[in-house]
Amino acid sequence: MIPSALYNSRVQILISAGEASGEMYGAQLIEALHRHDPSLQFFGAGGERMAAAGCDIVVDAKELAVVGITEILSRLLGILGLYRKLIHAADEKHPALAIVIDAPAFNWRVARQMRKRGIPVVYYVCPQFWAWRQGRVKLLRKYINKALVIFPFEEKFYRDRGVDATFIGHPLADMPVPAGTREEYADANHLDSTKAWITLMPGSRRKEVRMNLPTILEAAHRLGCGYEFLLPVAHTLDAAFLNGIIETQPSPALGVNIHLVSEALPALHHSRAGIIASGTATVEAAIMGTPFVMVYRVSRLTYALGKPRVKVPYFAMVNLIAEQEIVPELVQRKFTVENIVAEMNRIIPDGAPRERMIAGLAAVKGRLKQGASVHPADAAAEIILKMI
């Protein structure tokens, strides 16, 4: 039961999400908190989804969606200006609590400023410091009051290092199957329902899309006109940007079309397979039970500096959760058209490789729901409201 005093006040909450997946989780959390207490007011960094959920957007998440050392350096002054804008808004609104979601390069600085002002801070969807730069955990100990983690192995990792962490389940784990039939989806998106469909997900940030999409498109053209290719437009991107990359590629094979679609989950649900960049999209594919090949590429400098610091045996989140390789990982030099086509030709047809991957993805989905009796956003909301 929420104290009646909360309903009679206009409690402000700062919420900061820096990219497409974090923005989605932020919108879910705002909706869950509003279900408990409609009087709560939200402001911060986010995008269209969070705005629709009732958040006053001070900083557009698209402006924070950067990846790689070189891009961060080139955008540093602009990001610093956005950071100052958000802190200024916090000083005006005096939030009762701050919630930061992923995006550690930006959000740990936000957390530091909130703690300086005596404002409790919750980290929802913690940075993957267990994968690399484990020494950064000290930042969470210093600036975070509560960590809400979405992968089962994270709770022990952070607790062992002095962080008050609670596993609440993955926000996508109990996502229902998208409504509508395959034929209805085909009609709505001008697709050929007699062909197998393949979903292409090159990332949610412009730099990673520029690094990943050209090779993915070439692989699509090599796979040929026997398939329809679906490219969901991430909320941190826009169709014009993606079309600009598509149009600069060499002339496609006859009959091969790339269809931009609005949402990832329905595309994955209706697709035979996927070519998917490392990140939250791999978890979305697992939840939908769609076999896929994981790909990823960063600049040579970023890879050279980052590779020695990686502390985990796999790049793909689904492989880390499964503790074995259930999807192939094509990273940097392995990320070639030939390798993509070879792996796709193993998992598209019926047979043992496809069946093994589907079973492995189902096991990953089960682990993500492990011990969760309510939706993770509702579990997070209950914890957060007790802290206000």
Textual characterization of the structure:
By secondary structure, the chain is an alpha/beta fold. Helices cover 47% and strands 16% of the residues. The protein is built from 18 helices and 13 strands. The strands form 2 sheets. A 7-stranded parallel β-sheet has the order 3-2-1-4-5-6-7, sandwiched between helices. A 6-stranded parallel β-sheet has the order 10-9-8-11-12-13, with helices on both faces. Helix 2 (20-36) packs across helix 18, helix 5 runs parallel beside helix 6 (104-116) and helix 6 runs parallel beside helix 7 (137-143). The longest helix has 18 residues, at 76-93. The chain is globular and about 60 Å long. The two termini are 14 Å apart. The model is unreliable at 1-8 and 67-71 (pLDDT under 50).
Q: Biggest β-sheet: count, sense, barrel?
A: 7 strands, parallel
Strand content: 15-25%
> In terms of structural class, how would the helical and strand content be classed?
alpha/beta
- Intertermini distance: 14 Å
The Cα radius of gyration reads 21 Å
Overall pLDDT score? 87
Please tell me what the overall shape is.
globular
Oligomer: single chain
Helicity range of the residues?
A: 40-55%
Care to count the β-strands? 13
The number of helical runs is: 18
- Strand ordering within the main sheet: 3-2-1-4-5-6-7
The unreliable regions are 1-8, 67-71
